[in-house]
Structures are given as C-alpha cells and as structure tokens.
C-alpha cells in the first residue's frame, strides 16, 4: 500500500469527521432550548472538529512549515473557547437567561445568595 494513499485516506476521514463535529455544533446552537445547552454545543464539538480539520489540512499539505501555524491556530481556539464559554455562562446566569428546570443541579445558587447577603449586610447597593 502506497504511503500517499494512506495519508489521503486518513486525512479524508479526519475531514469528514471534523466537518460532522462542526455541523453537530451548529445544529446544537439552533436546536437546544437554553443558553447552557447551547454553550455546551458551541464549545465541545467545535474544538475537536477544528482539531481534526487542521490535522487533515496538515496531512494534505505535506510540508513541515504548516504544522506550527496549524498548531498555533488550534491552541488559540483551545485556550479561548473555554474562557469565552465560561464568561457567556456567567453572564447568562446573572441575567437569568437560563431555564432552572433544565438544570440537574444549581451549584452556583448558594454562592450567589451568600454574596448577595454579604453585600446587603455591608450596605453595598452594587452601583
């Protein structure tokens, strides 16, 4: 079996799988009912899908210099997507843009209530 054929087959599988992962993320953004579910759909499959697509691109290019560039692109996504999802989740929680009946456990509620009580006790109006 020719090594070129194996590389082409592996990159084809990576491209199709990466594209399907990205498609699943897009469908999840459209179909999921609340902010927290959409946030999960936007981050988890998107990062893996991008990794697979960048790997397929690197295999198809067949040059060494493209790998550092692709690695930087993927690391940038890997570092920024969780942070942005966390910030969107916090903003959604604070502005009550979530469905509490869809949460299995609200672990943040006790902390928010404690902080609000402390703020009231200190006389801080939050302005």
TrEMBL record:
Annotated membrane-spanning segments are: 6-30, 65-88
Which of UniProt's keywords are assigned here? Membrane, Transmembrane, Transmembrane helix
Q: Which InterPro entries match?
A: PhaG_MnhG_YufB
Q: Which domain of life is it from?
A: Bacteria
**GO molecular-function terms, A-Z:** sodium:proton antiporter activity
Which family is this protein grouped under? Belongs to the CPA3 antiporters (TC 2.A.63) subunit G family.
Record's protein name: Multisubunit sodium/proton antiporter MrpG subunit
């Amino acid at each position: 079996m020719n090594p070129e054929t194996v590389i082409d087959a592996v990159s084809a599988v990576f491209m199709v799988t990466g594209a399907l992962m990205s498609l699943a993320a897009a469908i999840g953004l459209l179909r999921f009912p609340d902010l927290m579910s959409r946030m999960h759909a936007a981050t988890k499959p998107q990062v893996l899908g991008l990794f697979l697509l960048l790997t397929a691109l690197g295999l198809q290019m067949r040059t060494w210099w493209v790998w550092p560039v692709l690695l930087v692109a993927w690391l940038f996504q890997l570092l920024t997507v969780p942070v942005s999802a966390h910030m969107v989740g916090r903003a959604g929680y604070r502005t009550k843009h979530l469905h509490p009946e869809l949460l299995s456990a609200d672990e943040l509620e006790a902390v928010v209530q404690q902080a609000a009580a402390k703020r009231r006790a200190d006389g801080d109006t939050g302005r």
